[in-house]
Amino acid sequence: MKQIWIITKRELRSFFDSLMAYIMIVLFLGFSGFFTWLFGGDVFMVNQASLQSFFGIAFWSLFFFIPAITMGMIADERKSGTIELLVTKPVTDRQIIAGKFMAAFLLICIALALTLPYYITVANIGKIDHGAVLMGYLGLLFMSAAYISIGLFASSITGNQIVAFLIALFIGIFFHLIFSLLASGTTGWLSSILSYLSLSTHYESMARGVIDTKDLIYFCSIIFFAMVGTELALSKRNLTN
Questions:
Q1: Which residues contact residue 77 at a Cβ distance below 8 angstroms, ignoring those fewer than 6 apart?
Q2: Cα angle at 158 between 179 and 235, to 5 degrees?
Q3: What is residue 186's three-state secondary structure?
Q4: How confident is the model at residue 91 (pLDDT cuts 50, 70, 90)?
Q5: DSSP string of 54-82?
Q6: Per residue in 60-72, pLDDT tens?
Q7: Quick check: pTM over 0.85?
Q8: Are 156 and 77 contacting, i.e. CB atoms less than 8 angstroms apart?
Q9: CA dist 181 to 23, 99, 148, 184, 221, Å?
Q10: What is the DSSP letter of 48?
Q11: How far from chain centre, in Å, is Cα 238?
């Protein structure tokens, strides 16, 4: 655990040293704030104390921001050779991956924590469903964790950051949109399977204030398989070196 925390702090510090963290946070707050308060969702126009408009915007903005955060976490180190230096230290591939995952996840947590004034403001406007807000944030955290794991996998199979970004987006768009579209165009058991594979189905359920075991299993499964894939990619690297 100590090694994981050391790697987490190292990666988190690199985010802020490279200005990546500041850029991501400012853009995220700018997009979510603009579309929540001024355009499209405008909580003042819906005449209801709710953060559903924010959760809808965050659902899409984080989808694009997370691949940008993770694209260089392994790819850049593979290209520069620093990943080889890191594995010579008393840490395992699993600890390296876990540390990088935690760093990206903490950055998302910081960004979401900075949106709490939205919640406070809306709560002062009218009676708000606090449980729904809590579940909405929890849904964003689970969604972010899933896309971080996918982003790390994409970053582990290439040494090019842009390619890693595009691979993460390509994989993510199936969970984010395509499975849902395919489910709406089919019926029966196939529609049920495609609907279950759709991340939006599980996220929207949580954003409405509903938590179900199948939603938790879904997100944890994506995280598990993506992290295992990342570890296998790094192990393959070790065998070829």
A1: 83, 86
A2: 100
A3: coil
A4: confident
A5: HHHHHHHHHHHHHHHHHTTTTHHHHHHTH
A6: 999 999 999 999 8
A7: yes
A8: no
A9: 32, 35, 23, 5, 21
A10: S
A11: 27
